[in-house]
Amino acid sequence: MNVLIVEDDEKILTFVAKGLKEEGFSVDTANSGDEGLYLAQINEYDIIILDWGLPIISGLQICKELRLQKNTTPILMLTAKNDIDDKIESLESGMDDYMTKPFVFRELVARINSLLRRSSYNHTDIITLDTLEVNISKRTVKRANKSIELTSKEFSILVYMLNNKGSIVTHTKLQDKVWGMSEITSSNVINVFVHHLRKKVDIEGELPLIKTIRGSGYKIEANS
Ligand code: CA
Question: Which of 23, 125, 129, 179 fits a disulfide with 183 by CB distance 3.0 to 4.6 angstroms?
């Protein structure tokens, strides 16, 4: 398992790096935001541990930047108490978990392992729900064993919904995850895409899976 630690506090960086090496991780370190972002972009990590307050580029900015670039590596943020007060911003940044300093090393390891389990679960190649079957690497979709042709946007919407099965997927999330910040679209456009997706996925005689949550967004789940 490869881990990247970005932390400007030399003591914490050394302590965490040493501890994780002893746990069997392969560890890369950076002590500034720009170096951390650079390493995260050129290497593949299984998990990234980011300090929030960093010189040049903050941990929060790194997190947002990586998610914009469709980097889905799990991110655990280390924060000072007050950082997390801006909860909305932190939740929207795309981090997966955070720990408030000072922390106990055993808990850090436990959280890392939990994130790694979650991400390996998310990376399963075939996702099924009721009679819907999506093969991520082959980019194929079947409903009740019949092939469905989806556009690439429809496919991305469906996979994002399936990865968040049972939770409300908002327009903002879809904008962020499917279109990205360089391609701003409207709620109406998103509605049209979901409408087409639903017509293809929720075929006659099968359980409807995609639900509209009025005023919020959508949800995919198998219980009617
Ligand atoms: Ca710091």
Answer: 179
